[in-house]
Amino acid sequence: MTRKIEIYPLNRVEGDLEITIELEDDVVINAHSAGTMYRGFENFMVGRSPLDGLVITPRICGICSTAHSYAAASALDMLFNVDVPRHAAWIRSVTAMVEMLQSDFRHAFLLFMPDFTDAAYQKEPLYASMVKRYAPLEGSSVRQTIDETRRILEIISILGGQWPHSSFMVPGGVVSMPSNNELKRCTYLLNNFKQWYERQVLGCSLERWHAVKTKADLFSWLKGLCTNRKRTIDRYSTAGLTPYSC
Length: 246
Hints:
- By secondary structure, the chain is of the alpha+beta class.
- Among the domains are: 1-39, no CATH class; 214-246.
- The chain is 52% helix and 12% strand.
- It is built from nine helices and five strands.
- Helix 3 (86-112) packs antiparallel against helix 6 (154-160) and helix 5 packs antiparallel against helix 7 (180-202).
């Protein structure tokens, strides 16, 4: 049986978003997202030099400036008919993905999860835990998310010179290549973020999470997660410390 779910509008932060999902026997077979608000960024560039886009568009937004820079540089790549060298393409992609990590985590933990701290949910069994973790600007997960996403953005500062509003992408590539020491710093920052993500968000390794392919796998993972946490709770209790709940 096929059914369609339409969600509109999703308007938190900026603009309006429409999500359409098609499911067949509870399996997603198709999904679309569409921005329904015309924001008119292109009008900033009317009558200006094409190269001005490298300076203007990254400054449109203080959250996703790298994405706008990437779009402007890619448009100029096509305009000048130039190919981007492999290593330059990697640098562009890495910085874009790092910024995406920041956006995804801050949206989830700073903008979405705090909804569940509303008094309307106070009769739910996990309400106290939700308030402790996701209370706006005070919850433990909120504070950690702000700190960890700030640190991961240092990768863009290393590869692009600054964040936000970087201007290191140019037609045909990037303005410079990182040194070995800079790459090591980026690797260090990425590994630290990965460790926090596995510990605080997943509760398991990335490899274990990637093994989740079906709904049954998901519930098996969740059962194992709660079992492991129960063992930790028991160890805390034995040591006379305050345990947390699953």
